[in-house]
Amino acid sequence: MQSFQTQSLTTEDELWRWTATELAHAIRTGVISSREAVISCLNRIEEVNPTLNALVKVLPEEALAAADEADRALAQGNILGPLHGVPISIKINSDQAGQATTDGVVAFKDNIAAEDGPVAVNLRNSGSVIVGRSNTPAFSYRWVTSNDLHGRTLNPWDLTRTPGGSSGGAASSVASGMTPVAHGNDIGGSVRYPAYTCGIMGLRPTPGRIPSWYGDPDGDQSPAGQFMAVEGPLARSVSDLRLSFAAMSRFHPRETLYAPVPLQGEPLQTPIRVGLLRDVGIEKPSAAVNQALDQAAENLRKAGYVVEEVNLPLFKEAFELWYLLCMMDFKEAMPLVEQYGDEGIKKGVKHFFEVTEEFWGKDPSLSDYIKGYSRRGTLIYKLQEFLQTHPLLLLPVSTEQAFKQDADIESSKGMRQIISTQWSMMSLAVLGFPSVSLPTSIVDGLPVGVQILGRRFREDTLFDAAEIMEAYSTVKTPIDPQ
Q1: C-alpha distances out from residue 376 to 185, 212, 429, Å
Q2: Residue spans of alpha helices (H) in 251-342
Q3: Would you call 435 a catalytic residue per the annotation?
Q4: Which of 141, 137, 119 is nearest to 128 (CA)?
Q5: Could you give the number of structural domains in the chain?
Q6: Confidence (pLDDT) at 6
Q7: Catalytic status, residue 190
Q8: Confidence at 215, pLDDT banded by 50, 70, 90
């Protein structure tokens, strides 16, 4: 890709280092142009993407044309969206008109989308400029981002460690400064875990908040796809999460659970009580993760929150339910996986099904499935009851730091260990409450952080708490690949 030249800028800082909030404000006020911001990010992509392989399709001509249109709209006094002129990326498992929705599968390389999906529609309507497409594992179903079509994405903190999955390309690109914000989606940690491993922030919103759709525009969505899968932004600051969340939350008719709930709710009763949940009987947090939880709790206490250790065994039950409800749904995709999947996804899914068998037997019945959904409703009620007195819950993202690339497919035993460390990834997806993953510190050269959960449709309370923890975080991004 060719280098792009900018006109002289009004600041010594490279624009690719700026947050989306800073860029949007500077573009809106005429301090910089969208073209300058986009060129800066394109140059950064040219510099670091060959090492990281985070964006597998870069769109310089399309992006520059969109940036010029954004600058013309500003000059004409048009109404501007919250991300007007700001560079972003979209994941390759989501439809973007004229681009292949490959989902990391060789056989899908020519699956060109005729129109934008809900995410792309909302991001374009917000004024953002799409500069590229971010990588995923095949079928977006691993915590490692590697596939036979686009290759492997690396973690800028340590090239031998996973950048997470399935939104690993999104997280790696944001952490290294390719774009300030990236789109991701999450049915079992695919926003929160990549954000965690790459030292940035990720939002898993309430289902129905951000419109989504998977696969054929005229196809049917699985129950897990409707009730547990969500779209969410990855970013380097809480202010950018707020901004991109607002941009992505507009109505789209394909979203079956959409609820027109205000983005800002009533203030919580003070002092705000926070539950601290370390262990649910699956895997104890490492020393680094325990330290991160302690640090986050102390920082919230300094701001007047009351933080209390709690025990919520319902999370263990929800974790196991994920392996019934989601893996039963995924069985419908197995003919495609077996025919078109690469070795990574085939091994990974094999290990996932082995864990499912451990919890639910070899062949769970339709009755098991129906009872699982019935039980899910009871667990949601129990957590909502708890959140009446403790409207926020602090807990691990993972009980360990980023694991080695491909550790999930080396053996069944290794995968079982990794699955145990990821208990909160699955349990939160089943329960359907919003959460934010955010970094706190660096331990042994790798980021570590925490997750904060809140009441349904109260993402605003998560942002408020996350801003406090952000103020004390020692993790600074963007970074150069290490």
Answers
A1: 21, 22, 11
A2: 287-302, 314-330, 334-340
A3: no
A4: 119
A5: 1
A6: 45
A7: yes
A8: confident
Report the C-alpha gap between 123 and 247 in whole angstroms: 6
- What range defines the domain where residue 280 resides? 15-472
Q: What CATH number should be reported for the domain holding residue 388? A: 3.90.1300.10
- The beta strands (E) that lie in 137-295 are given as 146-147, 151-152, 181-186, 201-204, 230-235, 273-276
Among candidate residues 110, 114, 252, 247, the one with its CA nearest the CA of residue 181: 247
Distances (CA, A) of 267 to 77, 391, 435, 461, 464: 35, 11, 18, 8, 11
398 labelled catalytic: no
- CA–CA gap between residue 144 and residue 154 (Å, rounded): 9
In the DSSP assignment, the letter for residue 478 is -
- DSSP β-bridge partners for residue 158: 155
On the question of pLDDT at 159 being above 90, the answer is yes
Buried b (16+ CB within 10 A) or exposed e, 270-295: eebbbbbbbbbebbebbebbbebbeb
Say how far apart CA 434 and CA 204 lie, in whole Å: 5
Residue 9 lies in a domain: no
Q: Distance between CA 258 and CA 36 in Å, rounded?
A: 36
Given 34, 40, 91, 126, the catalytic residue: 91
Q: Is residue 9 pLDDT above 60, yes or no?
A: no
Percent of the chain topping pLDDT 70:
97
Q: Is residue 362 part of a domain?
A: yes
| 3-state secondary structure at position 336 | helix
What is the C-alpha to C-alpha distance for residues 14 and 4, in angstroms, rounded to an integer? 14
Q: What percent of the chain has pLDDT over 90?
A: 95
Domain membership flag for residue 251: yes
pLDDT tens per residue across span 81-100: 999 999 999 999 999 999 99
User: Given pLDDT bands bounded at 50, 70 and 90, which one contains residue 8?
Assistant: very low
Q: Specify the pLDDT at position 13.
A: 66
Is residue 482 in a domain?
no
Q: Is the pLDDT of residue 434 over 90?
A: yes
**Catalytic residue of the set 40, 166, 167, 244:** 166
Mean pLDDT over each residue of the chain, to the nearest integer? 96
Choose, from 33, 140, 173, 190, the residue flagged as catalytic: 190
CA distances from 194 to 101, 335, 360, 366, 405 (A): 20, 28, 28, 33, 13
